[in-house]
Amino acid sequence: MREKTCCVLGHRDTPPSETELLSLRLSVEIMKAFSAGCTRFISGMARGTDLLFAEKVLTLKKSFPQIELVAAISHRGLLKSKDEEFQRLIKQCDQVVVLSEHFYPGVKGARTRWMLKNSCRLIAVWDFKEHGGVIRAIDRAGKMGIKVQDIEQIVFYYPRSDVRLSPAGARPHAGVRRST
User: Between 67 and which of 61, 77, 123, 125 could a Cys-Cys bridge form, CB atoms 3.0 to 4.6 Å apart?
Assistant: First the structure.
């Protein structure tokens, strides 16, 4: 199933003024993944990028019922979230995978590793900072052999002051391979 699976990683704090553009870019990237053969999509279901991704996958699923949405939940306590959007979306997932019964330091990293291990494609929303969970996941994806088809299309930037979708000089980080 890995060869037909795409996951998303991204920031939780998307500025409201940029949500519409991020939503559009996620829709485009999800459709590219679907066109490349991905029919299974994994979301960590965190606020921000993850929930927006889940929403976009469910929208596409209306036209293509073979699409599956999988929720990767780091620990069981998150299922008790009072967030209405989370609860609405989790009920529509085809599968919910709970990776730990309890919270522990590093549980989010374990969830990310599980998502990457079970995916052939990564859509990453990244602010091009040299530190943080998203850059570590991008590096790990490359080391795991997850091909990034075109870094400018798969990884995009949404700064707080102006929007650049394919920044000049953007470079893949260690371990990230472009396919040829």
Answer: 61
